[in-house]
Amino acid sequence: MKRLLALLLAAIMVSSAVSCAADPAEDTTPTAENPAAEATETEPVETKRFLDDLPEELSFGDSDFNILVRSEREDTTLAFELIGETVNDAICERTLLLEDRFDVTIMPTPLVSDKGQWNTAIAGSAQAADGAYDVVLPDYWWGIELGGYYADLNQIDYFDFSREYWCKGWNQNNEIYGKLFTAVGDWSLDLILQLEAIYFNQRMLTELQLENPYDLVKEDKWIHDTFIQMAQTGHRDMDGDGKMNPRNDVYGIMYNLHGGRGFLYAYGMKLGTKTDDGGWSLDYYNDRFVKMYDTVYAMHNDSRLVNYGEGYGQLFAGGSTLFQVGVLDCTRGYLRDMEDDFGLVPYPKLDEAQEDFISFNLGTAYMAIIKSAKNPAMSAAIMEAFSAENCKSVVPVLYEDALKDKYSRDPVAAEMIDILKRTVHFDFAFVNDAALNALCNVYFNAINDKKPLSSTYQSQKKLTERLLEKLMRSYQDTEEEAAAE
């Protein structure tokens, strides 16, 4: 099957080359009208075959490469049949390329997204040292990394986390004392599909004679106060009963839990601070943090302005909400059938003092290599190439064709998606959600419950500091164990 699909891939590549060759070339023959044109010989430009810097002849001798993958994400991770759907076929072609390049057969083991089942599978393989999985791709918030089952990726040959196809916004915030047990890169399409954006209704914007958010972003004027002023103009009590009702009235802003939490991150909330020795502290309570909290608190608890979750998605798609926070994957779902044109922009900045936009990602799987993997170097090489090839051939299909043009119906959105991808940030407390008692949720939950910041901070301070100390100690212990070995 693998070789047959490889032949199909080769046929597709040849067909593409013939099609390109059939295009008429520009005529540069000198003429009376264009005497400056000269027929010159140009030397062929050397291009690398692969984006990564792995050895060209690296081969693993017809080995099986076993991937434990969430069954709900298998179709955006691996594909083995060409079905005429652009994203699937790009994934399939990349899979075949990896198999052929490294002389391996990629063998997925799908497992439902259940924390207990995943913990059992990974812990069982690690304890039995059976080498059952060459790489595992669990969800980030299950906390399996705390079990001590994973190898330090920084100590394995072939990884280069400085490259553009690895997510610095995750990897840098997950490294403790120089050790990295989990990593995220372009191998995960959730890095794009789960990015949160602010969607706006183009028709309503025109009718209300409001500034275009695209222009505000480009002019660096897209800040919270402007966003709120526009949303206040957009909300309308359509039945005149003096009460806002999602079934009858028009809201300025709509979001769900994750979209609301994203405002805090977009406004600069960074709960973790890296220390000089490579560890982390939770030193974040300052005047700027207070301003972030108070700003989001005031917005969220304005019931005439914000619809928090009721009728989420359907109301915006139906043209009765000016702004909605949602992931980019919405453009491939219900927003494709939306009659009104829509646009999308990053979250606004908190104020003029904020240097850059900060985008928030709903969440993604990470990759890890169990200590007992049969050949960690093979695991590293293939995942390095996996991310590189996705960056080169899969992400462009999803990002350029599907998200930018086919689904969003708005070419200007391309620039906005560029900003979202460039500025994505995974906070240390978000990455280590399981180890820190879900600290990343504490403050938005407090806002939703109308709790004051000071008492909220004090109520969890001692606990999270103890948990952080435990987390730091676990990394120091693994360093001592490695030294002893």
Keywords:
485 residues, alpha/beta, D-Maltodextrin-Binding Protein, domain 2, 2 domains, five-stranded mixed β-sheet, three-stranded parallel β-sheet
What can you see in these coordinates?
It contains 16 helices and ten strands. Mean pLDDT is 87; it is low at 1-5 and 9-40. By secondary structure, it is an alpha/beta fold. The strands form three sheets. The protein has a five-stranded mixed sheet. It has a three-stranded parallel sheet with strand order 2-1-3. The protein has two domains: 54-191 and 364-407, Periplasmic binding protein-like II (D-Maltodextrin-Binding Protein, domain 2); 193-363 and 419-471, 3-Layer(aba) Sandwich (D-Maltodextrin-Binding Protein, domain 2), CATH 3.40.190.10.
Shape designation: globular
Give me the count of strands: 10
CATH class category name of the largest domain: Alpha Beta
Low-confidence stretches: 1-5, 9-40
Structural class: alpha/beta
- Helix/strand order, N-terminal first: HEHEHEHHEHHHEHEEHEHEEHHHHH
How many helix segments? 16
Q: Give the name of the CATH superfamily of the largest domain.
A: Periplasmic binding protein-like II
- Spatial sequence of strands, sheet with the most strands: 8-5-9-4-10
The helix content is 40-55%
Average per-residue pLDDT, rounded, comes to: 87
Largest sheet: 5 strands, mixed
The percent range for strand residues is 5-15%
Can you tell me the CATH topology of the largest domain? D-Maltodextrin-Binding Protein, domain 2
How many domains, as an integer? 2
Radius of gyration: 25 Å
Q: Please, what is the oligomeric state?
A: single chain
The second-level CATH architecture of the largest domain is 3-Layer(aba) Sandwich
